[in-house]
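Support request, please re-run this one:
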Amino acid sequence: MSKWVWLAVLMLFVFVFYSQTKAGEWNDKPVICENKEVFEKLMVDQGKIIIGAGDMLAAVRTKDGLSDIPAILPMRIYINPTTKQFTIAEFHQDYMSYCILAFGEQWTILGEVS
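Re-run finished. Output below.
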């Protein structure tokens, strides 16, 4: 084979493996979901207030698996300004429930003086 054929094969090999190693992948992350009223009472009981909100694009499951079309779901960020605990949740109107995506401690706003 000529050196150009070998070069083409090498370039194809590098392209295929490089693109596969850089591709993202979907992972299933367990979330906990709760009735809207129960969730909102929990936020009040924990002294958390909404500090941010937005509409997020989320992968959702259908009977055929992950949908190719993302759902638009309201997302909320709650914090307790005293304890610095936080919760990030999405709201599902069809089920009247919130799903907690993340929660934790030591919430800070970048540039905020402690």
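The mean pLDDT is 84. Helices lie at 3-22, 36-45.
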